[in-house]
Structures are given as structure tokens and as C-alpha cells.
Amino acid sequence: MKYNFDEVIERRGTDSVKWDGVKNVWGRDDLLPMWVADMDFRTPPFVINALRERLEHEVLGYTFACEEWYTSICSWLHRRHQWDITREMLTFVPGIVRGQAFALQCFTRPGDKVMVMTPVYHHFFLVTERLGREVVYSPLELKEGKYQIDFHRFAQDIRGCKALILCNPHNPGGRVWTVEELRRIADICQENNVLVISDEIHADLTLPPYKHHPFATVSDAAAQVSLTFMAPSKAFNMPGLGSSYAITVNEDIRHRFQTFMEAGEFSEGHLLAYIGAAAAYTHGEKWLTQMLDYIKGNINFTENFLKEHVPGIGMIRPQASYLIFLDCRALGLTQEKLNELFTDKTHLALNDGTMFGQPGEGFMRLNIGCPRSVLEKALRQLAAALA
Q1: Are residues 138 and 154 in contact, defined by beta-carbon separation less than 8 angstroms?
Q2: pLDDT tens across 332-344, in order?
């Protein structure tokens, strides 16, 4: 089946954070939203059909995870990431940020140090701060158009920390970490008795020829010091279902985490979360291949358009995901003036780069998970504003 990613779908009036939430954040509704990390494509029909079929049975009682939830995840991880897990390693989680919060509450105490590598998805440090833990900011280095880890600094910054929240692949830089990099992280964390909380929500958005490597698969050390979070939500545009899961190889970490989750019934999902995830992983291969090809086309379009029409703004080409970190430093504007440019002159709603930490100064994050006609409109507005 050929899927249509050029279709423009009206999302206003659906309580969409991305579209209807613009007024709440910017105080105006004349901005084209290119910020929140969901896509403007239809959620795949096989997911919608599975939900619809279940809703035709008009009793929404208490349910447990369907067998397909377990088997589809295990099969998907085997096929896509060559990771063989058992169903006992799986724990349902109602969202990955929530999962991080649960992990921090389970494995750390107020006042403990937790490291993040900035710029990074802002909830990594926000959830840590709000839970009363101390955030250790260890900045990445931007070299040759991609973010890299200064391992000398990493080894110094990790000392005294109880946990590292790792973004694998990286958001907002779109970096796919190599096996060698992940192994070095694992070795250093094992030496320092640090738990690695690996957020791998963008794993299935890795763009060929790059290959995602689940952190727990790169070495025995990585498997023994980590807790991995994954979800079908980004790849299949279904974050509203809150269907995420944790994978733990180490039996002690697994027992502690599952005991914590079961104590508060945090690991009890709703029936549509289970059914939606199972449908995505069972039937989603071809849809995902076509969607990633379309996203790659959008990345190429953006890169070429900026080079030709928007002097002063470059981009970090993502190796994964539909998020592009725009490098606006050559414009010589303060972050406040940069934000004014994008809102008042360009009429676009983007994420301020400093939202992801101080190293994001001079950057803006652009979501290109949309029909190309919408992307072209946004880029033309940007070019006109700078002209």
C-alpha cells in the first residue's frame, strides 16, 4: 500500500498541544506551529482500525496487557534492532518522561546528582529538578556538524552522580551514537556505579544508512547498569495513547523497578495503549519505511532551501528523527532577538534552542514531520523575513 504523506490534515479544534496550544504559549494564534514533537501525518490506518474494532465491543472494563503486546514488542526489537529480550524484561510505562520520573524516584533520593548531556530534551533536567535531585550539566561538543562527547569531561562530570539520563538517539541534535561511544559510556558508568536511564523513544526514527544501537546491547557492562525506555509513539504518531515500556536486563534493577511500579499500579496500562502498540509493531514495517523516506526528503528539501534562500542560518543534519536544530548563530542576534525574529517577523512557532540548555543558545528547533507543502510555506516565511 502507498501511503499519502502529502495530505494536509486540519488539526485545530482537537485540543492539539502543537496546534491549539500555540495561543497558550505565545499569546497569539497567527503562528504556523513547527514545535511540539509529533507529526501532522495521519496515525497509521492499521492502528486506527485496531482501536476501532475494539471499541465496537461496547464494554470498556478493566483489562490486562494482551498477549500481542508482549509478542509484538519482542518480535519488533528482534527484527529492527537485533535485540532478543524476554517478556519478563518488559514493564508497561504510561509515557517515557513519567518513566524517567519513576526511575529517579526508585533509584535515587532527593539531593542526589543526576547527569544530563546538553543540549538535550528539556524534560530530562526539568523532571530531575522538580523531584529535588541535583542536575549535573555536561555539555556536548559540536564538531564537524554533529554533536560529540568529550569523554575526558564526561568521566569527570559523572563522578558522584547516581544516574545518567541518556538520549539515544539524541534530541535535538539528531545524533545516532556509535557502538564505541555507547560502550565507553557504559564502562565509565559501571566504574562509578551510575545507573544509565536510556531514553530511546526516537530509535525507530533512525534514518538509513545509520543504525540505532540499543544501549543495553552494546556490552555486558551496558546491560548490567541500564534501564531502557522505548515507545511506538514517535515513530507511528500516536503519543496520545501513552503507550511506552521499560526494558531491564539486570535482574536486580528489574526487580526494584517493577516492584516500585506495581506498588502504585503505575505499570497498569489502558486497553487502547496495549492494542495500539501491538498493531503498530505487528503491521507497521512498510508504513514506517515510507514515512522515513518522506522525512529524509523533507530534510534534503530543508537543507537545500536554507543554502539557496536563507543566508545566515544553517542546520545540523539529523541522523535520526524529524527534528532539525537550526544554527542561527551567524545572524549575530541575542536569543531574545532571535525569538522575536521567528515569531514577529517569520510567524513561526519553533522551540527556543536554550530550552534544551545553555549550549542551545543561537539555535532553534524545527519540526519537519509535516506535508512538504507546509514545510515549504514555513521556510518561505523564514526567507521573506530575513530578506
Answers
A1: yes
A2: 999 999 999 999 9
Task: Quote the radius of gyration of the chain (alpha carbons, Å).
Answer: 21
User: Closest by alpha carbon to 188, among 151, 138, 139?
Assistant: 151
pLDDT category, 162, cuts 50, 70, 90? Answer: very high
57 half-sphere exposure, CB direction, 13 A CA radius = 9
pTM over 0.85: yes
Please state, as a whole number, how many other Cβ atoms lie within 10 Å of the Cβ of residue 6: 11
Identify whether the C-beta of residue 376 lies closer than 8 Å to the C-beta of residue 301: yes
Measure Cα distances from 136 to 99, 163, 186, 188, 359 in Å: 20, 10, 18, 16, 14
Phi, psi of 316 (to 5 degrees): -90, 115
DSSP state of 144: T
Tell me what the mean pLDDT of segment 145-170 comes to.
98
Task: Determine whether 152 is exposed, middle or buried from the number of CB atoms within 10 Å of its CB (0-12, 13-18, 19+).
Answer: exposed
* Distance (Å, whole) CA 280 – CA 282: 6
pLDDT of residue 312: 94
Return the pLDDT at 134. 98
